[in-house]
Amino acid sequence: MAFSERVARLKSSLIREILAAAQRPEVMSFAGGLPAEPMLPKVEWAEMPASMGQYGMSEGEPALREAIAAEARALGVPCEASQVLIVSGSQQTLDLASKLFIDPGTEVLLEAPTYLAALQAFQLFGADCIGVPQEADGPQIDALRQRLEQHKPAFAYLIPTFQNPSATRYSEAKRDAVAALLDEFGVTLIEDEPYRELVFDEGSATPIVSRLRKASWIYTGTLSKTLLPGLRVGYLIATPDLFPYLLRLKQSADLHTNRIGQWQALQWLGSEQYKGHLAELRAFYRLRRDAMQQALLEHFADLADWQVPQGGLFFWLTLKQPLDTRTLLNPALAENVAFMPGEPFFIEPDRHPGHLRLNFSHVAPERLGEGLRRLAAVIRQAQAGMAA
Amino acid sequence: MAFSERVARLKSSLIREILAAAQRPEVMSFAGGLPAEPMLPKVEWAEMPASMGQYGMSEGEPALREAIAAEARALGVPCEASQVLIVSGSQQTLDLASKLFIDPGTEVLLEAPTYLAALQAFQLFGADCIGVPQEADGPQIDALRQRLEQHKPAFAYLIPTFQNPSATRYSEAKRDAVAALLDEFGVTLIEDEPYRELVFDEGSATPIVSRLRKASWIYTGTLSKTLLPGLRVGYLIATPDLFPYLLRLKQSADLHTNRIGQWQALQWLGSEQYKGHLAELRAFYRLRRDAMQQALLEHFADLADWQVPQGGLFFWLTLKQPLDTRTLLNPALAENVAFMPGEPFFIEPDRHPGHLRLNFSHVAPERLGEGLRRLAAVIRQAQAGMAA
């Protein structure tokens, strides 16, 4: 069978395999990024007009595009509804952006670590990925300047607010510095913000796209983390030089996003009910974050370092004594514990051993301590084996 | 702005522009392929479990995959549920298959004419498209053999049952002949069947994939023509050598298809209610097909030749005096009539003037005669201009 060249770059998805293993009910899973089941809001469908069953526009529902543009403007993103494209979950933004920008060998700039599924999508299209080391308050600015001086990336893909996996929230100063550098070098920014609304500790985080003066940009978000991921409704907002191409690529990919999910999203976006739901969600996840922090202090204080995440869904642990955390997966699953190894979040996995991504939204607090105790034991045993 | 090479191959979508123009309420549109609004079934959502709001599997809902496999087996397609992938409308099958097979310069085999959006999707990925002329009962078999002897296509993309745009239903003999040739040359078949259930005149049409003995295949269908296109739920069934790649490509494209649409599709598929709905749909469209035939005989008998479609949604007209039908678009729209020019359905549009695709499902019968009268007048005027 003669497949395309890109199929050779199609990785078997570690995430899918881990999540499949984690679906056994006895498994305590810190692996996924799923919303907690009890926090999925009850939704009503009775009022949906029959016309939502018909074909729709590739751009998305006009009223939803207006609502998303209004929310974005309130965040400081300068945009009109005409710049909003409704996508089938924000994963699709990565596919469309890859098609727009990436030929085999095209350079793209990413945080190190970065979102695994973005890295895989860009690599599938043949991108030559360049990493910028991440610090507690955002990317190393000197490294970013050096990369921009030495390379010609088609775009920079950044997740500045509660990054997956590192949970980093860029500081104001770094947001400004990044924007200034992208303007200086004329590099397009793709800013991915799935976790913006899942904030537990207040603080300013105006999007970087709102600080750009010249560079083109795509800003992308989703309803999956705050409403219902099963709707598969996300969006992108793009500068007018990019929008028409993204629209045609969207049409070629799947004609348009399902309208029933779009209609449901519109019932919530900007409503008092949604504000109330977001407040409940933050309170719920804050408690789980705090419970995880307590349990980590108990079981991991001597094993790893970490920052307390101010938002999002993950803790990012750095082992004091690094080892390839992929080797821990099977022993952990044998103890009915699932987690996400850190290596695949890096462009060169083998050069970045010793990180674990732990989701805190899914495991119920009463099982948390036991799950982390078992995971710590697996790590201790592996490290003892290394020392031996 | 440095875009990817493929963006240069991204055509402005004539379809989208025509459909946009056709949305003005005063326009009588024969352009689209939309189901008739009165035939969109009333659907219920009250029983949908809350769990459909959570993330799902990239493969799709297990029960829906089972139901689709059962329906396919009843048609003679040998398959298991494990070979079924739920996609975001069958347009997505074209995107996934393009990713799986097409590098710039990869040869693919298509009917001439073929489905416009498929042609555009394959060309976007850089396919070198090879056409096989279509006759009233399917492709010219001699031409097909000759193409297979002279080329090495990665796949053949065929729409054997009520093809869009030509409405052709392959004969039994041609189905067998095509299968034998694809087996002989070891060429993968992509068989696209959106219109299978919209049949007005009985007759056998077992899928070609069920006649293959060796060649790999992808069989793709959709709920969009028979239930609700707004759900964006389609499917593909693939041989086991192709399935794992298509699954990973699906995950990279949009994680999974929306679950609410999948749940709704499952309520209908295989039910008595669905069988009743399909019977009503066929009766409704048969009447519209017959009304269109009458109106065409009245207004187009001296202008064009055509076959009466036995299924699907379109008449395909061949002008007795060919001209570039794209030049008729603006004069027709000035008369508040929209139609689809035939040229873009061919790999080399300029070499195939003189066809029109007319949809018969959308325009109400009482406006049909007036719409076709105006369209015929536009054609007569253009032909008179050519003669002058």
Automatic annotation (TrEMBL), chains A, B:
Residues 50-375 form the Aminotransferase class I/classII large domain. GO terms for molecular function: transaminase activity. Keywords: Aminotransferase, Pyridoxal phosphate, Transferase. InterPro entries: Aminotransferase_I/II_large, Class-I_PLP-dep_aminotransf, PyrdxlP-dep_Trfase, PyrdxlP-dep_Trfase_major, PyrdxlP-dep_Trfase_small. Coiled coil: none annotated. Its cofactor is pyridoxal 5'-phosphate. This is PLP-dependent aminotransferase family protein. The lineage of its organism: Bacteria, Pseudomonadati, Pseudomonadota, Gammaproteobacteria, Pseudomonadales.
